[in-house]
Amino acid sequence: QSVGLGLECRTSGIPMNKGNEMIFKDPIHGTIELHPLLVKIIDTPQFQRLRNIKQLGAVSYVYPGATHSRFEHSIGVAYLAGEILKSIREKQQDLGITDWDVLCVQIAALCHDLGHGPFSHMFDLMFIPKARQDITITHEDLSKQMFDHLMENNDGLLKYMNYRPPSNPSEKRYILYEIVSNKRNKIDVDKWDYFVRDCHYLGMKNSFDHERLIKSARACEVAGEFTIHCDYPYQHKVNCAIERMINDAFLKADKHLSFGGKTLSTAIEDMGAYTKLTDTIFDQILNSTSQTLREARDILKRIVRRDLYYCLGEFPSRRSQQVIEVCLFECKCKIAFLTILPISLSQVYSICWFERFEEKLHRIYTKRTDKDLKDDQDAFEKFKNNSYKKKNN
């Protein structure tokens, strides 16, 4: 069985002997070897689309080097999944981890991000909740649907695999289900790869030694939980502004773009159409001449000119006077934009909430940058003061 995708590998037709692996050169992990079946999955249109989906969304507008994609991240996660399982198997042979177990977990690792949309989390956390208020869906749900689509449209893979819902694992083998995404203590190869890879492309120093963790990893009961701290670039106020602007442009363009008969927001209902959704939609809108896309195009032109939504200020929750500037790995940077109603300039403001441990940081933006912002700053101070009064009452 695989992890999360309900996959079972057949024992016939797949060469498992040493020497059949394909060799890749990865800037993070160096020379890596992948099973031929993983390469067959990589060489599908559904997986190749990840080349055009940036790992960090719009962060490259703030950190120019952060242009790496979900494509290389997914390959890195698959590699690390194999390495840690092989390391555990060598030290704890009583667990009965087989080559098939390793391969299936690697397939799950390789495919875990198949469902990401344009600009990654901006699409599923901002655009879809606003454009499709009739449904609730996550990129994990979309990954499962995209994996189904990949299997159904690539006959060469079907002879190697059976596809069925996963059964309940025994306690001894539950570790197989925690390699890619660990809900228990958050220690998993997905985080290991994106932490090291993101730091590399962001130009940030990194002292996290995942190789040492792999060599020392064991399957055991742990009373406490490990946590890893880092500065998170998603919280950068300029990135927040740009992602909101892209979201606004997508909302304006939604009904005027067609992907196999589906709009931008309804493409999630058809994986054939969804396969066409990547970061390239930005350029598609920006370079269009259609009058129906004018409003969306104008917003994206502002990004290109660096005429961005302006951050008037920010303030922390009153629950603590200390502003915590780091984010635990297990804390997703959940971003939600809400319209501010109490002030007169309600139509040009948005509020951005960030999870920081148990803190919330309130950050206020104005869309207007073409005039003196004194009135806007005064409105922000009024809103901030009113917020403090409400909390104190």
TrEMBL record:
GO cellular component: nucleus
Molecular function as annotated in GO: dGTPase activity
Signal peptide limits: none
InterPro entries hit by this protein: dGTPase-like, HD/PDEase_dom, HD_domain
Every HD domain range: 70-195
Gene3D superfamilies xrefs: Hypothetical protein af1432
Any Gene Ontology biological process: regulation of innate immune response
Family, as annotated: Belongs to the SAMHD1 family.
Protein name: HD domain-containing protein
Lineage: Eukaryota, Metazoa, Chordata, Craniata, Vertebrata
